[in-house]
Write a structure and sequence with these properties.
This protein is mainly α. The protein has one helix spanning about 1-35. The relative contact order is 0.09.
Length: about 40
């Protein structure tokens, strides 16, 4: 039972970490687009 709980906790932690990493990448992409000095024409 403890092993199952540990596996579930690890999976939840990994999912949370991936979500945070994806949010960070999206935020970085938005900043890169907003601060891009090359004109789009």
């Amino acid at each position: 039972m403890k092993k199952l709980l540990l596996v579930l906790l690890a999976a939840a932690g990994a999912a949370f970490a991936k979500k945070k990493m994806d949010e960070g990448k999206n935020e970085q992409a938005l900043w890169a687009e907003a601060t891009d000095t090359v004109g789009k024409s």
